[in-house]
Amino acid sequence: MYHLMKGLYMYATSKEEFSVLLLGLDNAGKTTLLEQIKAAHSTTQHPNLKTVPTVGQNVSTISLPDMYLKIWDIGGQHSLRGLWQSYYSSCHAIVFVIDSTDIGDAELAKLSSPDGHNEDDFGRLEECKLVLEDVLLNQDTEGVPVLVLANKQDREDCVEVVRIKEGLVRKVFEGEKGGSVRDSRVLPCSALTGTGVTEAVEWLCSRVKWNKEARPPTMR
Ligand SMILES: Nc1nc2c(ncn2[C@@H]2O[C@H](COP(=O)(O)OP(=O)(O)OP(=O)(O)O)[C@@H](O)[C@H]2O)c(=O)[nH]1
Ligand SMILES: [Mg+2]
């Protein structure tokens, strides 16, 4: 009887759990974003916005009415990027965070015709493009929804989201094999102020549910 009751209780209280990876170059704002998401889903916690570069990973599970989101924030430094791929096969969505103040004017086309430009004009645009391409082309991320966040939109020197979408993201996604087989979206945000964080989480929740047959959740 005890086991039956326990089983029923577990069944009634368990929820689906989906894993989300936060990826992006070092200093993009991944850990700050995780802090904001955690604080937004806690009644007591304030975000710790004094981050240090992540060496390894941070992980937090947030409880939503109909699911758990287990969010993995992985260090973006060059030497740590090799670790990312070990998370791909078990993730349900990827958030690729871009520092909107460190990509020149986000115009990929200008990279290939650098007349009159020096490297400083581009920030880390080329590096950002290569790293995003690498994520998309890995076979373990095939079909996984990808949310690109144009972060640091609170700063005056940021590139606006439409430019990032048209000049950088669309071109990288067009180069992807198989074209439009995955859900993707580009959204503006400021991890520092929290603007756009709710919209990002909402998009993730809807897409992991839609993609449930291809990548089933675990029950918890
Ligand atoms: N102005 C502004 N600064 C931000 C924003 N998000 C992050 N930062 C700052 O950018 C710096 C790096 O933020 P982190 O969250 O530590 O970056 P990260 O992507 O986790 O970096 P790694 O752990 O090295 O991969 C910190 O000084 C943050 O305060 C933002 O939306 N606006
Ligand atoms: Mg970090």
TrEMBL record:
Residues that bind GTP: 24-31, 76, 151-154
GO term, biological process aspect, one: intracellular protein transport
GO molecular function: GTP binding; GTPase activity; metal ion binding
Secreted is among the record's keywords: no
Keywords recorded for this protein, A-Z: GTP-binding, Hydrolase, Magnesium, Metal-binding, Nucleotide-binding
Keyword check for S-adenosyl-L-methionine: no
InterPro entries, alphabetized: P-loop_NTPase, Small_GTPase_ARF, Small_GTPase_ARF/SAR
SUPFAM superfamilies linked: P-loop containing nucleoside triphosphate hydrolases
GO CC field: Golgi apparatus
Binding site for Mg(2+): 31, 54
Protein name in the entry: P-loop containing nucleoside triphosphate hydrolase protein
Taxonomy of the source species: Eukaryota, Fungi, Dikarya, Ascomycota, Pezizomycotina
